[in-house]
Design brief:
36% of the residues lie in helices and 13% in strands. By secondary structure, it is an alpha/beta fold. A hairpin with a 2-residue loop joins strand 17 (616-619) and strand 18 (622-625). Its main location: mitochondrion.
Length: 730
Amino acid sequence: MTTREILTIQLGHYSNFIGAHWWNLQESNFTYDPKNPSEVNHNVLYKEGENSRKQVTFTPRLLVADLKGTLGYLNEQGSLYDTKPSDNQLLWDSTKLEITSAEPSPKSPFIQNLNELDKAVDAETYNFESDVKSWVDYLLPLFHPRTVHSIKQYSHNCTQRPFNIFTYGRDLWATEQFSDNFADRIRSYVEECDLMQGFQVLMDSADGFAGLGASCVQHLRDEYGKSILAFPCLDFNNAEPSASDLVKVVNTALCWQHIGEDSSLYSPLSCGQVGWPFAADSRKFENITYSPELRYHSSAILATALDTVSLRYRTKKYSGASLSDLCADLNKLGRKAAATSLSLPFPMKMKMDLIDVLDGFEGSLWTSLTPSCDIPMDNNMQSIALRGIPEDRIKRPVHEATKQISKPAYKCSSVHEMMTLYLACTCHASATYLCNIEAPLKISLPYPKIFNNNVTEDGNIADWPVGTNVNSVAVMAGMHSGSNVAAMYESLLEQTKRIRNIKKFHAFTDSGLEEDEFMECIHNLADCKEAVMGNKVATFTEEQLEDYQDCTFFTRKEILRIFKRFREIGDPGMIPRTMTPQEASSLRLPLSYLARIPELKENPFRERISEVFTQRQDSGQSTSLSEGICFEEFLEMLSVFSEQAPRDLKVFYAFKIYDFDEDGVLGLGDLERTCRQLTRGGLSAEEVATVCRKVLEESDIDGDGALSYLEFEHVVTRSSDFMATFHIRI
């Protein structure tokens, strides 16, 4: 069976809390019994290797980034591979070096005793709630040497130079020191894959990792073109409101905007009911009790959801399913965002069959893990994964069936068939993809003890306290795309609009965030809300975007940004929100509206520029200038005026602009008109004639009384500021 690999990337402290639990769960659920092979294809997320001692290794296909001071005892190079050079490889005499080493970082009691777990260590001796300071304090797996990247430019919990602004992360990615190193690690993993599915990216969305994650996702999209499933993560925070809450709101909004443009699908994660400006209340689960303010607790819940919902594209049973299928199913009608749900544990009651559990269940089967977004049972595109329901517990045999036999679900012969029927009957107007495996989720140290005392050892729900340690549970998780996600956008939009002037937040503006970019972010939230509600914002097909990329000097993101600008210069309602791609390319705005672009408002050649970039249309027997400009002409104009456009192209269009009579040369009349417009009528006729005569004397090489294109090009090449002035910022 061909492995369809996935590379996981974790960016940020809280994302690594989640990731640590996720990889712990996978290692705890490895199966080593050849008679009972695992239903999960672990090769999707893990890679096999060999170290210098010829030992076979099996490590997560993973990249991790966190700030200096968070790794503690963890060696960036790991302990599986001998990365230290031998003495004969050194370029210096190691005996003549003075080595100064810092005291090793302390390990948590659990990590200290990790190698003694086979000796019946009493789990009660660990107090994870107080011992865990960082995600490395409960990390089980050993990593590949290229996995961990410590960001040396910033320190964890540093108040003098905090890593708390979106643009800090974006600027960090732009540095050669970081991006080259990190991009090389990504490339090394990708080149080792035989048939790669794509990427899973977890990122903190309320601090500088929002910008770093957005830049990383853009890099993945531009370089590899594979499916990208992104999870922007929000730590639960019930602290007193402060000004920093609005900073987190801006970071989150910018993060969603950028990953929404570059990812295949994204789903915000949080254990808070509302993620901004702070999480006042946590999500409630019927059979677990946890402390949401403890990252060690809340991240375990989110990791459980990720481990389960990802079964769709990493099980042997559904070998044809892929990450791209999941993204395509849920990314419909411009809905890039999906909500994540969890049922932990799945409510299988003691001594009850699945048919009776489902028949007697009231309410929703799941709890939302997406902030400001409740997930109804109806009107969803959804992907559901269920694990831990044995096939022998779906119903009683015929001779024991009694009341079960009268239920329609009794005809079902498998867990998958019965759950499919249940979801079809209870989820009105929904399309559901369901996958299931029989193996439950094994629970072991260092998973937190959050299950109530009515949960039995094997995860069943009792009506009385049982007081045993939970060793395994049934779990159901899902991703849902529907109009309910609009509430999430509306909530964040409402908070973002509280910021009247982004310039008051100096950290953003000082690090390069412009007011136009912030306003564009606000418009993006409004557009996303409308798209989710079914009021689809004008957009383009993939083929159109590819064509526009081929014909301009813009990226996909820039093309969409330019289209938003095209809409903004029109009057409200002039360009409808619901329109076909053909309409988006043909609908025209009056040329006078170009004056609403600051760079053209004061340009003396504004009308002439409009004429040059506007197509001519036949009008009866004569040819007249178009009455407006369409988006494609607007896009071409900005492409020529962009920084990326080469000098030769700019010179060509500059010549066309100055050639008023369009006879192919710049004659005396063209030069005089150009001079009058440049000086805005400030020179007399004699003075204009004198200037034009001198221009011809110096530049008319062949003496024909006009400047040819080659002569004009020769003049322009001597102008040092031509490229800077022939430019419109997008």
